[in-house]
Design brief:
The chain is an alpha/beta fold. The chain is built from eleven helices and 22 strands. The strands form five sheets. Strands 1, 2, 3, 9, 10, 11, 12 and 22 form an eight-stranded mixed sheet that branches. A six-stranded antiparallel sheet has the order 6-15-16-17-14-20, covered by helices on one side. It has a four-stranded mixed sheet with strand order 5-4-19-18, covered by helices on one side. The longest helix has 20 residues.
């Protein structure tokens, strides 16, 4: 029999950015919060002297152990899904802080268009512009409503940046000035301006000055060491949960973190969540943690899986388009181009995770799609994240992949080449979804999560059209040879692309087509909140963390209102006038 623990006001499933924000806000308000984290405890000291590319970047020291838990994958429902046995397309974090510790720090706001994407698309182009297979829908919230929460997250993190000329309006400037303008960034900005675009410095959670955030947490100036993505910052110069929101919550005395605690079920009774069941991963003991509010705050894929194994909410059925849990799984559509220079040299071995510049002229609906065979778009960017020696071997197309020619070209172009990227949106398809695998289970006997996903014609057309700009930019920057990669085939889960998984527990204003309201409160269970990128109804042409943080602050406010007022739905459900087609 599981051991039942003392009741708390709120229990969180996972302890990363979203749980940390919820815990910080609610414990400051006097509520008790327990965070259940299945990984190990980590502090800043654990990341000292870990600038080891082989161990962390290539052998994935900080990532989920796929021998103990993984997902299965297939491109379509006619295929047999197979387990993902090694990290590739995306990197699932583990331990305290989760993926919020090994991130790069690129912290964007989504565009106003994103939150009302269906209604604005129909208003400008007509309903027929949206393909029948595309389950596109508004989010049930506007940019203006979410803007104050963006502002709070940016000030908590000490985001360094400059205003995006084509972005949504801001109530305040970034708390810190932008990162350094290096030679390659200056060349990018000049070329973009020459071509009529609107470049801006990338918003960065790598801090440009020593900074004390509104909660009194001290962060430090980035040293441009180039060990950000796949690494924790040993200097405390990259905003992450361990140096921001978690200390804030712990200092109240109302927050307890219990590590090595793997939640296997959300417990429900009479239409409400009563707590969670979890296993101590060290001893194998089972425990019940009762709570007035359950906040599911783990990574996207884990959020969806836990709801499905707990039989909470209606699973999505791709055949009928009915159900909501697992619906609108989206990823990111990428394009890239390499420019090779004979005479120019760059300090590419130095950098930071969010050192770069971008422009949004081909993002969202910032350009006319009337005669185009796709919607949305993506950001065009250059980043100087720092080329580490093992995994950085840029050579022109046609170069041998090994041997003396490869070595010669690798050495020549290591600091004579630049890479530009398209980070494109991912719009939902009725045939891209998450469910439980009928064959494979984990070590506890629970079914693995199954991902059914492939790129669509929308994705391919968008990548080809927007990606051609990359080559034009590199030519304007003076590259002597340019290779463009903007053709995408079928999605493959092995080569790394991005860790930007979204959807599966999406937000909206209609319970028939969404799982949570705009406070990320479940329609079916008033005291169950599910937040994070799982709430995204689609993915924009940006990194998701800024929007994850904003939604978490909104969710925390909703939970507090729920507790203060003794329960109830925070948002009245309504049927939108333009319902999604299925």
């Amino acid at each position: 029999m599981p051991t039942e623990l003392d009741r708390v006001d709120v229990v969180t499933v996972g302890v990363g950015w979203t749980a940390g924000i919820i815990a910080a806000e609610l414990t400051k308000a006097g509520y008790t919060v327990k965070g259940l984290e299945r990984g190990e405890e980590k502090t800043l000291e654990d990341y000292l002297h870990q600038k080891d590319e082989l161990r962390y970047a290539l052998r994935y020291e900080m990532m989920q152990d796929l021998s103990k838990e993984t997902i299965t994958f297939r491109n379509n429902s006619d295929m047999n899904a197979l387990p993902m046995r090694r990290h590739g397309s995306f990197l699932l974090g583990t331990d305290l802080g989760g993926s919020g510790v090994h991130w790069n720090g690129q912290t964007y706001r989504f565009l106003p268009y994103d939150f009302e994407i269906r209604s604005q698309t129909e208003e400008r182009y007509g309903e027929d512009k949206i393909p029948d297979y595309m389950t596109l829908q508004d989010w049930g919230i506007t940019y203006d409503e979410l803007e104050p929460y963006y502002d709070r997250f940016e000030k908590t993190c000490g985001i360094a940046g400059e205003e995006n000329p084509l972005g949504g309006p801001r109530s305040d400037s970034y708390p810190l000035p932008p990162m350094a303008e290096t030679k390659m960034i200056r060349m990018f900005k000049e070329a973009a301006t020459n071509l009529g675009y609107h470049p801006f410095h990338m918003p960065s959670a790598n801090l440009t000055e020593n900074y004390e955030n509104p909660d009194g947490q001290q962060l430090y100036e980035c040293q441009y060491c180039a060990f950000c993505e796949r690494f924790g910052c040993d200097y405390g110069a990259k905003a992450d949960p361990i140096v921001t929101v978690l200390p804030t919550a712990q200092e109240t005395g109302n927050f307890e973190i219990r590590t090595n605690s793997n939640v296997t079920r959300i417990l429900t009774e009479n239409g409400e969540a009563t707590g969670v069941l979890f296993v101590d991963t060290k001893t194998g003991e089972e425990f019940i943690q009762p709570a007035d509010v359950v906040a599911v705050t783990s990574y996207v894929l884990n959020n969806v899986r836990l709801l499905l194994t707990s039989e909470v909410g209606t699973p999505y059925d791709p055949e009928t388009g009915e159900g909501v849990i697992g619906k609108n799984y989206c990823y990111q559509v990428m394009g890239s181009a390499n420019g090779f220079f004979e005479d120019e040299k760059f300090n590419t071995f130095m950098g930071a995770g969010a050192l770069g510049a971008a422009f949004d002229d081909y993002n969202g609906d910032n350009f006319d799609h009337s005669d185009l065979d796709f919607l949305h778009g993506g950001e065009i960017a250059i980043t100087q994240t720092g080329r580490r020696p093992i995994n950085s071997n840029p050579v022109p197309d046609g170069t041998a992949s090994w041997g003396s020619e490869f070595k010669e070209q690798s050495l020549k172009y290591f600091n004579r080449s630049l890479n530009l990227r398209l980070q494109g949106s991912s719009l939902p398809s009725q045939n891209n979804y998450l469910d439980l695998d009928p064959t494979y289970t984990d070590r506890y006997g629970d079914p693995l999560l199954r991902m059914t996903y492939d790129f669509t014609d929308q994705d391919r057309n968008m990548a080809q059209y927007c990606g051609q700009v990359l080559g034009e930019m590199l030519e304007e920057m003076g590259a002597d040879h340019v290779d463009v990669d903007n053709e995408i085939g079928n999605y493959d889960i092995v080569p790394y692309q991005t860790t930007h998984n979204t959807g599966g527990v999406i937000m909206g204003e209609d319970p028939e087509t969404s799982a949570v309201n705009n406070y990320n409160q479940m329609w079916d269970y008033d005291n169950l909140f599910v937040t994070g990128a799982s709430a995204f109804a689609h993915n924009s042409g940006y990194n998701p963390t800024g929007t994850v943080g904003a939604l978490a602050y909104r969710c925390a406010e909703g939970i507090q209102e729920f507790l203060d007022n003794g329960g109830g739905q925070l948002v009245e459900a309504k049927k939108p006038s333009r319902k999604m087609r299925t």
